[in-house]
Amino acid sequence: MQLLVLNEAKHAVDTDVAERRCAVTPNTVMRLSRMGLNVVIESDAGARSGYTNAAYTEQGATIIEDGTEALASADIVLYVNRPSDAHLAKLSENTLVIGHIDPFFQQSLVEQLAAKQVSTLSVEMIPRSSRAQKMDALSSQASLAGYVMMLQAANSLPSILPMMMTPSGTIKPAKVFIIGAGVAGLQAIATAKRMGANVLAYDTRPVVAEQVESLGGKFLKIDIGETGQTKDGYAKELTDEQKAKQQDAQRDAIADSDIVITTAQLFGRKPPVLIRKDTLALMKPGSVVVDMAAQSGGNVEGSVAGKTVQVEGVTVIGTGNWSQQVAKDATDMYANNLFNLIDEFFNAETKQFELNLEDEILAQSVITHGGAVINNMLKNAYGGQ
């Protein structure tokens, strides 16, 4: 089987961002080659994450100048993101495309992939089960995002985070409030604590309080009635009444904080607005808010996708693409996720990727196959098609 990896900085689906990550590393190329896959990589695909063409060829990869021309002969195409329109036109039937497809918000692309008879595996749809942990790209990238968001906030704050006792006086530790204690939020908490801040966190799922406290943070308890999480570990959507209670209870914590990081995202839906402008106005001048969800709608009123702006005297960071700021580690983690996925379903005797749609992982993550959209969640989201 031929496995193709493109230089996604040259084929950006988001023209404002030149992708810095790559879907393979020299190490995963070595392991894929040993399995019997013919790995073809477009020139400089790994350059922005620190991997040269020579590093790949030394491990068995073939480097080509124009990856677009190789799409028609590829059996598997690995993406960090998703195919562009130009790629879609060149894909052959029965090709397996794997990447961050963003399927709930890319209906047209998904339907075109189905019409092309392409099998599409969306890594966002991989279930959060014990068996699938090693393939969970959303979690691996979110963990890095939590770290990067905390660093960006610290760099924008006009004061330091740790307590400092000097002959000139004592500097009190900064106060950091993290809203959402999922993978990204927990990493932000851990990073803030390592930097010496006082950390308070809140999540609609009371079950995560112990995790917050194990990292040295304090958990803000708010009684908004029944909440909980989905079977995949995501927070359930709140009612309008619950959202109002939550915002009221968080207002004092936000006003008292130097840094606030919001990480609330709903799987397949627009994120909730957690902080209004009137609440931002209560914060001290120079305070910093990082909106992890800015690119998909925003948790913070006034945040702008891809930019850092001033709102009511507060620096609101919505730059996004968080894991790309640490592109080498992001590439290493994502490439390992993809290798583990391929390894799980690769038949060593036939040298083929077995697309067993009865397997619980593939049943949820393969979204197009045989000329149709086959994921029930997506079909419902698209209007019951």
Protein traits:
385 residues, alpha/beta, eight-stranded mixed beta sheet, seven-stranded mixed beta sheet, 12 helices, 17% strand, globular
Q: How would you describe what is shown here?
A:
By secondary structure, the chain is of the alpha/beta class. It is 31% helix and 17% strand. The protein is built from 12 helices and 19 strands. The protein has helices at 26-35, 53-57, 85-90, 107-115, 137-156, 183-194, 209-214, 240-255, 277-280, 327-345, 360-365, 376-381; strands at residues 2-5, 38-42, 62-64, 76-78, 96-99, 119-122, 164-166, 169-171, 175-179, 198-202, 218-219, 259-262, 288-291, 308-311, 314-317, 346-347, 352-353, 366-369, 372-373. The strands form 4 sheets. Strands 3-2-1-4-5-6-18-19 form an 8-stranded mixed beta sheet, with helices on both faces. Strands 11-10-9-12-13-15-14 form a 7-stranded mixed beta sheet. Strands 7-8 form a two-stranded antiparallel sheet. The two termini are 33 Å apart. 43% of the residues are buried. The mean pLDDT is 93.
Largest sheet: 8 strands, mixed
Q: What is the average per-residue confidence, as pLDDT, rounded to a whole number?
A: 93
Query: Biggest sheet: strands side by side, in what order?
Result: 3-2-1-4-5-6-18-19
Strand coverage percent:
15-25%
Ends: how far apart?
33 Å
* C-alpha Rg (nearest Å): 22 Å
Tally of DSSP β-strands:
19
Helical segment tally? Answer: 12
Q: Class by helix and strand content?
A: alpha/beta
Shape: globular
- Helix proportion of residues, in percent? 25-40%
* Low-confidence segments: none
